Amino acid sequence: MNVSDLVDDLYEAFVDGLGDPLAAYARDLPRALGLAPRANCPWSDVFSHDVTLGAPALLSERMKLPPEVVRDAVLAHALAVIDAFGTDRVEDLQVPGSPELLAVLGRARRQRDRAIRRILGGPPPPDCDFAHADALTTKALRKEREVLLASVPVDLDTYERQSLEKQSAGIVASVALARVAGWDQRLRRAVRATLESVALGLQAYDDVVDWEDDLSRGGSWTVCLMKGRRAAETADRQTEGARLRAQVLRSGVLLGLLDRAVHHMSAARRRASALGAESLAAWAASRRERFETLRNAESASAGYAVRAHALSAWAGEVLA
Amino acid sequence: MTLHATLDPHSQLRALYQALLSDQECFDEFKRLLQLYEFTPEEAEDEEPVDATEIRDRLNERIRTWVGGAFDGLSARQTLQWRAIIVEERFNVSLSPWKEANGY
Protein backbone atom coordinates (compact mmCIF):
# COMPACT_ATOMS: atom_id res chain seq x y z
CA MET A 1 0.00 0.00 0.00
CA ASN A 2 1.35 3.41 -0.93
CA VAL A 3 0.41 5.47 2.09
CA SER A 4 1.12 8.88 0.52
CA ASP A 5 -1.13 8.14 -2.44
CA LEU A 6 -3.82 6.82 -0.12
CA VAL A 7 -3.77 10.01 1.97
CA ASP A 8 -3.95 12.18 -1.15
CA ASP A 9 -6.80 10.10 -2.64
CA LEU A 10 -8.79 10.21 0.58
CA TYR A 11 -8.35 13.95 0.96
CA GLU A 12 -9.31 14.52 -2.65
CA ALA A 13 -12.50 12.50 -2.12
CA PHE A 14 -13.24 14.58 1.00
CA VAL A 15 -12.69 17.77 -1.02
CA ASP A 16 -14.93 16.60 -3.85
CA GLY A 17 -17.68 15.96 -1.33
CA LEU A 18 -17.56 19.57 -0.16
CA GLY A 19 -18.76 20.99 -3.48
CA ASP A 20 -17.84 24.41 -4.83
CA PRO A 21 -16.76 26.95 -3.73
CA LEU A 22 -15.56 25.26 -0.53
CA ALA A 23 -13.80 22.50 -2.51
CA ALA A 24 -11.44 24.97 -4.20
CA TYR A 25 -10.48 26.43 -0.84
CA ALA A 26 -10.01 22.98 0.75
CA ARG A 27 -7.83 21.82 -2.15
CA ASP A 28 -5.44 24.68 -1.37
CA LEU A 29 -5.58 24.20 2.40
CA PRO A 30 -1.86 23.38 2.88
CA ARG A 31 -0.94 26.78 1.44
CA ALA A 32 -3.76 28.57 3.31
CA LEU A 33 -2.32 27.18 6.56
CA GLY A 34 1.22 28.25 5.65
CA LEU A 35 2.38 24.66 5.34
CA ALA A 36 3.15 24.70 1.61
CA PRO A 37 4.71 27.33 -0.66
CA ARG A 38 2.62 26.69 -3.76
CA ALA A 39 -1.01 26.31 -4.75
CA ASN A 40 -2.78 22.95 -4.69
CA CYS A 41 0.13 21.16 -3.03
CA PRO A 42 -0.93 17.60 -2.12
CA TRP A 43 -0.68 16.71 1.56
CA SER A 44 1.88 14.02 0.75
CA ASP A 45 4.29 16.82 -0.27
CA VAL A 46 3.85 18.73 2.97
CA PHE A 47 5.55 16.23 5.27
CA SER A 48 8.76 14.34 4.68
CA HIS A 49 7.30 10.99 5.75
CA ASP A 50 4.03 9.04 5.92
CA VAL A 51 3.71 8.86 9.70
CA THR A 52 2.09 12.24 10.26
CA LEU A 53 -0.95 11.63 8.08
CA GLY A 54 -0.88 7.87 7.49
CA ALA A 55 0.04 6.34 10.86
CA PRO A 56 -2.88 3.85 11.02
CA ALA A 57 -1.86 2.30 7.69
CA LEU A 58 1.71 1.85 8.89
CA LEU A 59 0.57 0.20 12.12
CA SER A 60 -1.93 -2.10 10.42
CA GLU A 61 0.57 -4.46 8.76
CA ARG A 62 -0.24 -7.36 11.12
CA MET A 63 -3.86 -6.50 11.87
CA LYS A 64 -5.48 -8.54 9.09
CA LEU A 65 -8.23 -6.04 8.45
CA PRO A 66 -10.25 -5.37 5.29
CA PRO A 67 -8.73 -2.53 3.22
CA GLU A 68 -11.84 -0.37 3.59
CA VAL A 69 -11.45 -0.38 7.38
CA VAL A 70 -7.83 0.74 7.11
CA ARG A 71 -8.86 3.42 4.62
CA ASP A 72 -11.46 4.74 7.06
CA ALA A 73 -8.88 4.83 9.85
CA VAL A 74 -6.42 6.76 7.65
CA LEU A 75 -9.22 9.14 6.64
CA ALA A 76 -10.18 9.77 10.27
CA HIS A 77 -6.54 10.17 11.28
CA ALA A 78 -5.54 12.48 8.43
CA LEU A 79 -8.57 14.74 8.88
CA ALA A 80 -8.01 14.86 12.64
CA VAL A 81 -4.40 15.94 12.18
CA ILE A 82 -5.30 18.49 9.50
CA ASP A 83 -8.03 19.89 11.74
CA ALA A 84 -5.60 20.13 14.64
CA PHE A 85 -3.08 22.05 12.50
CA GLY A 86 -5.79 24.40 11.26
CA THR A 87 -7.34 25.00 14.67
CA ASP A 88 -3.94 25.71 16.18
CA ARG A 89 -3.08 28.23 13.50
CA VAL A 90 -6.40 30.02 13.88
CA GLU A 91 -6.20 30.14 17.68
CA ASP A 92 -2.60 31.30 17.45
CA LEU A 93 -3.63 34.07 15.02
CA GLN A 94 -1.14 32.79 12.46
CA VAL A 95 -3.95 32.58 9.90
CA PRO A 96 -7.30 34.36 9.94
CA GLY A 97 -10.26 32.25 10.94
CA SER A 98 -12.12 32.93 7.71
CA PRO A 99 -15.61 31.46 7.18
CA GLU A 100 -14.18 29.16 4.49
CA LEU A 101 -11.46 27.82 6.76
CA LEU A 102 -13.79 27.28 9.70
CA ALA A 103 -16.31 25.56 7.42
CA VAL A 104 -13.67 23.19 5.98
CA LEU A 105 -12.36 22.31 9.44
CA GLY A 106 -15.89 21.73 10.70
CA ARG A 107 -16.61 19.39 7.78
CA ALA A 108 -13.29 17.61 8.40
CA ARG A 109 -14.29 16.95 12.01
CA ARG A 110 -17.68 15.58 10.96
CA GLN A 111 -16.13 13.28 8.34
CA ARG A 112 -13.54 12.18 10.88
CA ASP A 113 -16.22 11.28 13.43
CA ARG A 114 -18.31 9.44 10.84
CA ALA A 115 -15.28 7.42 9.75
CA ILE A 116 -14.45 6.39 13.32
CA ARG A 117 -18.06 5.30 13.88
CA ARG A 118 -17.97 3.26 10.69
CA ILE A 119 -14.80 1.52 11.87
CA LEU A 120 -16.18 0.75 15.30
CA GLY A 121 -19.75 0.11 14.21
CA GLY A 122 -21.16 2.57 16.73
CA PRO A 123 -20.25 5.24 19.29
CA PRO A 124 -16.55 5.19 20.21
CA PRO A 125 -15.31 4.13 23.66
CA PRO A 126 -13.27 6.78 25.52
CA ASP A 127 -9.86 5.74 24.15
CA CYS A 128 -11.17 6.04 20.58
CA ASP A 129 -13.18 9.22 21.05
CA PHE A 130 -11.97 12.29 19.18
CA ALA A 131 -14.08 14.55 21.41
CA HIS A 132 -11.92 13.56 24.38
CA ALA A 133 -8.73 14.08 22.34
CA ASP A 134 -9.98 17.47 21.09
CA ALA A 135 -10.56 18.63 24.66
CA LEU A 136 -7.06 17.58 25.70
CA THR A 137 -5.51 19.24 22.64
CA THR A 138 -7.37 22.50 23.17
CA LYS A 139 -6.36 22.62 26.82
CA ALA A 140 -2.75 21.82 25.94
CA LEU A 141 -2.56 24.45 23.19
CA ARG A 142 -3.84 27.15 25.54
CA LYS A 143 -1.42 26.13 28.24
CA GLU A 144 1.40 26.09 25.69
CA ARG A 145 0.62 29.63 24.66
CA GLU A 146 0.68 30.80 28.27
CA VAL A 147 4.03 29.11 28.88
CA LEU A 148 5.67 30.32 25.69
CA LEU A 149 4.41 33.89 25.87
CA ALA A 150 5.57 34.22 29.47
CA SER A 151 8.76 32.29 28.64
CA VAL A 152 8.74 30.61 32.03
CA PRO A 153 11.17 27.86 33.12
CA VAL A 154 9.88 24.34 32.48
CA ASP A 155 11.26 20.88 33.17
CA LEU A 156 11.47 18.03 30.70
CA ASP A 157 8.50 16.15 32.16
CA THR A 158 6.22 19.16 31.74
CA TYR A 159 7.47 19.72 28.20
CA GLU A 160 6.86 16.11 27.13
CA ARG A 161 3.47 15.89 28.83
CA GLN A 162 2.33 19.06 27.10
CA SER A 163 3.63 17.77 23.79
CA LEU A 164 1.71 14.50 24.11
CA GLU A 165 -1.54 16.18 25.12
CA LYS A 166 -1.19 18.57 22.19
CA GLN A 167 -0.89 15.61 19.82
CA SER A 168 -3.69 13.48 21.29
CA ALA A 169 -5.75 13.52 18.11
CA GLY A 170 -2.95 11.79 16.22
CA ILE A 171 -3.34 8.58 18.20
CA VAL A 172 -7.09 7.92 18.31
CA ALA A 173 -7.65 6.32 14.89
CA SER A 174 -4.73 3.90 15.26
CA VAL A 175 -6.00 2.72 18.64
CA ALA A 176 -9.50 2.30 17.14
CA LEU A 177 -8.02 0.20 14.35
CA ALA A 178 -6.23 -2.01 16.88
CA ARG A 179 -9.48 -2.43 18.80
CA VAL A 180 -11.36 -3.52 15.66
CA ALA A 181 -8.54 -5.94 14.86
CA GLY A 182 -9.24 -7.58 18.21
CA TRP A 183 -5.99 -6.51 19.83
CA ASP A 184 -6.19 -6.59 23.62
CA GLN A 185 -5.59 -3.68 25.96
CA ARG A 186 -1.86 -4.43 26.24
CA LEU A 187 -1.41 -4.28 22.48
CA ARG A 188 -3.56 -1.17 22.18
CA ARG A 189 -1.38 0.46 24.82
CA ALA A 190 1.64 -0.53 22.74
CA VAL A 191 0.12 1.14 19.66
CA ARG A 192 -0.40 4.30 21.68
CA ALA A 193 3.10 4.16 23.14
CA THR A 194 4.64 3.67 19.69
CA LEU A 195 2.98 6.78 18.31
CA GLU A 196 3.78 8.74 21.45
CA SER A 197 7.45 7.85 21.02
CA VAL A 198 7.36 8.94 17.38
CA ALA A 199 5.61 12.19 18.31
CA LEU A 200 8.03 13.03 21.12
CA GLY A 201 11.10 12.18 19.02
CA LEU A 202 10.03 14.36 16.12
CA GLN A 203 8.90 17.15 18.41
CA ALA A 204 12.23 17.26 20.26
CA TYR A 205 14.14 17.40 16.98
CA ASP A 206 11.93 20.19 15.62
CA ASP A 207 12.22 22.17 18.82
CA VAL A 208 16.01 22.03 18.40
CA VAL A 209 16.29 23.09 14.77
CA ASP A 210 13.46 25.62 14.84
CA TRP A 211 14.00 27.19 18.24
CA GLU A 212 14.90 30.62 16.89
CA ASP A 213 12.00 30.63 14.42
CA ASP A 214 9.66 29.59 17.22
CA LEU A 215 11.01 32.39 19.38
CA SER A 216 10.38 34.94 16.64
CA ARG A 217 6.78 33.65 16.38
CA GLY A 218 6.08 34.18 20.06
CA GLY A 219 7.97 31.64 22.15
CA SER A 220 10.26 28.64 22.21
CA TRP A 221 10.09 25.52 24.34
CA THR A 222 13.87 25.27 24.03
CA VAL A 223 14.32 28.61 25.79
CA CYS A 224 11.83 27.58 28.49
CA LEU A 225 13.70 24.31 28.97
CA MET A 226 17.00 26.14 29.17
CA LYS A 227 15.57 28.36 31.88
CA GLY A 228 14.35 25.24 33.66
CA ARG A 229 17.85 23.80 33.55
CA ARG A 230 19.27 27.06 34.86
CA ALA A 231 16.59 27.57 37.51
CA ALA A 232 19.13 27.33 40.29
CA GLU A 233 21.26 29.97 38.60
CA THR A 234 20.38 33.60 38.08
CA ALA A 235 18.88 33.36 34.63
CA ASP A 236 18.27 36.63 32.84
CA ARG A 237 14.55 37.04 32.39
CA GLN A 238 14.79 39.10 29.23
CA THR A 239 17.68 38.18 27.02
CA GLU A 240 17.55 38.63 23.29
CA GLY A 241 19.44 38.12 20.09
CA ALA A 242 23.04 36.98 20.04
CA ARG A 243 23.28 36.85 23.82
CA LEU A 244 20.32 34.52 24.12
CA ARG A 245 21.71 32.34 21.34
CA ALA A 246 25.02 32.09 23.18
CA GLN A 247 23.18 31.14 26.37
CA VAL A 248 21.18 28.45 24.61
CA LEU A 249 24.26 26.97 22.95
CA ARG A 250 26.25 27.06 26.17
CA SER A 251 23.46 25.54 28.26
CA GLY A 252 23.50 22.16 26.50
CA VAL A 253 19.71 22.24 26.13
CA LEU A 254 19.93 21.40 22.42
CA LEU A 255 22.08 18.38 23.18
CA GLY A 256 19.62 17.31 25.88
CA LEU A 257 16.70 17.51 23.45
CA LEU A 258 18.60 15.54 20.81
CA ASP A 259 19.29 12.91 23.47
CA ARG A 260 15.55 12.66 24.02
CA ALA A 261 14.92 12.46 20.27
CA VAL A 262 17.33 9.50 20.03
CA HIS A 263 15.75 7.85 23.07
CA HIS A 264 12.20 8.19 21.76
CA MET A 265 13.04 7.03 18.25
CA SER A 266 14.78 3.97 19.70
CA ALA A 267 11.63 3.20 21.67
CA ALA A 268 9.45 3.79 18.59
CA ARG A 269 11.56 1.40 16.51
CA ARG A 270 11.47 -1.30 19.19
CA ARG A 271 7.74 -0.98 19.76
CA ALA A 272 6.81 -0.82 16.08
CA SER A 273 8.88 -3.91 15.43
CA ALA A 274 7.17 -5.77 18.29
CA LEU A 275 3.80 -4.88 16.74
CA GLY A 276 4.89 -6.18 13.35
CA ALA A 277 4.85 -2.70 11.82
CA GLU A 278 8.12 -3.25 10.00
CA SER A 279 8.06 -0.28 7.64
CA LEU A 280 7.36 2.03 10.57
CA ALA A 281 10.16 0.33 12.53
CA ALA A 282 12.56 0.81 9.61
CA TRP A 283 11.62 4.46 9.30
CA ALA A 284 12.08 5.00 13.07
CA ALA A 285 15.48 3.29 12.88
CA SER A 286 16.59 5.65 10.12
CA ARG A 287 15.40 8.70 12.06
CA ARG A 288 17.15 7.40 15.16
CA GLU A 289 20.40 7.05 13.24
CA ARG A 290 20.05 10.58 11.88
CA PHE A 291 19.28 12.02 15.33
CA GLU A 292 22.20 10.14 16.85
CA THR A 293 24.58 11.53 14.23
CA LEU A 294 23.30 15.02 14.96
CA ARG A 295 23.57 14.50 18.70
CA ASN A 296 27.19 13.42 18.41
CA ALA A 297 28.00 16.38 16.17
CA GLU A 298 26.13 18.71 18.56
CA SER A 299 28.18 17.34 21.40
CA ALA A 300 31.38 18.23 19.52
CA SER A 301 30.16 21.64 18.36
CA ALA A 302 27.23 23.41 20.02
CA GLY A 303 24.63 24.62 17.52
CA TYR A 304 25.58 22.05 14.89
CA ALA A 305 22.05 20.68 14.48
CA VAL A 306 20.59 24.16 13.91
CA ARG A 307 23.30 25.03 11.41
CA ALA A 308 22.88 21.72 9.60
CA HIS A 309 19.16 22.42 9.28
CA ALA A 310 19.78 25.96 7.99
CA LEU A 311 22.22 24.64 5.40
CA SER A 312 20.30 21.50 4.46
CA ALA A 313 18.48 22.89 1.42
CA TRP A 314 21.72 24.22 -0.03
CA ALA A 315 23.63 21.04 0.76
CA GLY A 316 20.92 18.92 -0.84
CA GLU A 317 21.11 20.92 -4.05
CA VAL A 318 24.80 21.68 -4.33
CA LEU A 319 26.64 18.86 -2.59
CA ALA A 320 24.40 15.95 -3.55
CA MET B 1 51.73 23.05 -6.32
CA THR B 2 49.48 24.84 -3.85
CA LEU B 3 46.48 23.33 -2.15
CA HIS B 4 44.40 25.95 -3.95
CA ALA B 5 45.22 24.44 -7.33
CA THR B 6 44.28 20.94 -6.22
CA LEU B 7 40.73 21.68 -5.11
CA ASP B 8 37.92 21.74 -7.65
CA PRO B 9 35.00 24.15 -7.13
CA HIS B 10 32.83 21.41 -5.67
CA SER B 11 35.47 20.53 -3.08
CA GLN B 12 35.86 24.21 -2.24
CA LEU B 13 32.12 24.54 -1.61
CA ARG B 14 32.24 21.38 0.49
CA ALA B 15 35.05 22.89 2.55
CA LEU B 16 32.98 26.05 3.08
CA TYR B 17 29.98 23.93 4.09
CA GLN B 18 32.08 22.04 6.62
CA ALA B 19 33.48 25.28 8.04
CA LEU B 20 29.97 26.70 8.49
CA LEU B 21 28.70 23.49 10.01
CA SER B 22 31.49 23.08 12.49
CA ASP B 23 31.89 26.61 13.82
CA GLN B 24 29.13 28.87 15.13
CA GLU B 25 31.31 31.97 14.85
CA CYS B 26 31.98 31.28 11.15
CA PHE B 27 28.28 30.74 10.59
CA ASP B 28 27.31 33.96 12.40
CA GLU B 29 29.91 36.04 10.57
CA PHE B 30 28.92 34.51 7.23
CA LYS B 31 25.31 35.41 7.90
CA ARG B 32 26.22 38.92 9.05
CA LEU B 33 28.19 39.63 5.87
CA LEU B 34 25.40 38.22 3.69
CA GLN B 35 22.97 40.55 5.46
CA LEU B 36 25.22 43.46 4.45
CA TYR B 37 25.31 42.36 0.81
CA GLU B 38 22.89 44.78 -0.86
CA PHE B 39 22.29 43.81 -4.46
CA THR B 40 18.90 43.02 -5.96
CA PRO B 41 19.34 42.58 -9.71
CA GLU B 42 16.20 42.99 -11.77
CA GLU B 43 17.83 42.06 -15.07
CA ALA B 44 20.47 39.43 -15.70
CA GLU B 45 22.90 42.08 -16.93
CA ASP B 46 22.50 44.39 -13.90
CA GLU B 47 25.90 45.22 -12.45
CA GLU B 48 26.83 44.62 -8.86
CA PRO B 49 27.19 47.95 -6.99
CA VAL B 50 30.67 48.82 -5.74
CA ASP B 51 29.63 48.57 -2.07
CA ALA B 52 28.25 45.09 -2.66
CA THR B 53 31.45 44.03 -4.43
CA GLU B 54 33.45 45.20 -1.42
CA ILE B 55 31.28 43.16 0.93
CA ARG B 56 31.60 40.11 -1.31
CA ASP B 57 35.38 40.54 -1.41
CA ARG B 58 35.42 40.73 2.38
CA LEU B 59 33.24 37.64 2.58
CA ASN B 60 35.55 35.72 0.25
CA GLU B 61 38.58 36.76 2.29
CA ARG B 62 36.94 35.49 5.45
CA ILE B 63 36.01 32.22 3.74
CA ARG B 64 39.64 31.73 2.66
CA THR B 65 40.64 32.12 6.31
CA TRP B 66 38.11 29.51 7.41
CA VAL B 67 38.96 26.95 4.75
CA GLY B 68 42.72 27.45 4.83
CA GLY B 69 43.18 29.55 1.70
CA ALA B 70 41.86 27.22 -0.96
CA PHE B 71 38.86 29.11 -2.24
CA ASP B 72 38.34 30.83 -5.60
CA GLY B 73 35.58 33.05 -4.22
CA LEU B 74 31.82 33.27 -4.41
CA SER B 75 30.45 34.99 -7.50
CA ALA B 76 27.70 37.61 -7.22
CA ARG B 77 25.17 34.97 -8.27
CA GLN B 78 26.37 32.47 -5.70
CA THR B 79 26.34 35.14 -3.00
CA LEU B 80 22.73 35.95 -3.86
CA GLN B 81 21.85 32.25 -3.59
CA TRP B 82 23.52 31.99 -0.20
CA ARG B 83 21.75 35.14 0.97
CA ALA B 84 18.40 33.65 -0.12
CA ILE B 85 19.06 30.49 1.90
CA ILE B 86 20.74 31.83 5.01
CA VAL B 87 19.29 35.33 5.44
CA GLU B 88 15.95 35.30 3.66
CA GLU B 89 15.45 31.59 4.40
CA ARG B 90 13.62 31.32 1.11
CA PHE B 91 14.41 27.65 0.65
CA ASN B 92 13.78 26.50 4.19
CA VAL B 93 10.90 28.73 5.14
CA SER B 94 8.88 27.61 2.15
CA LEU B 95 8.68 24.24 3.85
CA SER B 96 6.52 23.44 6.78
CA PRO B 97 8.00 24.35 10.15
CA TRP B 98 6.66 20.94 11.11
CA LYS B 99 8.27 19.21 8.18
CA GLU B 100 9.54 16.58 10.56
CA ALA B 101 7.21 16.64 13.50
CA ASN B 102 3.54 16.05 13.69
CA GLY B 103 3.37 18.57 16.50
CA TYR B 104 0.97 21.43 16.04
Tags for this model:
heterodimer, A: 320 residues, mainly alpha, 73% helix, B: 104 residues, disordered N terminus, disordered C terminus
Question: Secondary-structure blueprint of this entry?
Answer:
The complex is a heterodimer of chains A (320) and B (104).
Chain A: H1 3-18, H2 22-27, H3 29-32, H4 51-59, H5 67-91, H6 99-120, H7 130-150, H8 156-166, H9 172-180, H10 185-209, H11 211-216, H12 221-229, H13 241-251, H14 253-274, H15 278-300, H16 304-319
Chain B: H1 3-6, H2 9-22, H3 24-36, H4 50-67, H5 76-87, H6 90-93
Helix pairs in contact in B: 2-3, 3-4
Structure description:
The complex is a heterodimer of chains A (320) and B (104). Chain A has helices at residues 3-18, 22-27, 29-32, 51-59, 67-91, 99-120, 130-150, 156-166, 172-180, 185-209, 211-216, 221-229, 241-251, 253-274, 278-300, 304-319. Chain A is an all-alpha fold. The mean pLDDT of chain A is 92. Chain B has 104 residues and is an all-alpha fold. Chain B has six helices and no strands. The chains are: A mainly alpha (320), B mainly alpha (104). Chain A binds chain B through residues 35-37, 46-49, 51-52, 81, 84-85, 88, 163, 166-167, 170, 198-199, 202-203, 205-206, 209-210, 213-214, 242, 249, 297, 300-304, 307-315, 318-319, and chain B through 10, 13-14, 17, 20-24, 27-28, 81-82, 85-86, 89, 91-92, 94-104.
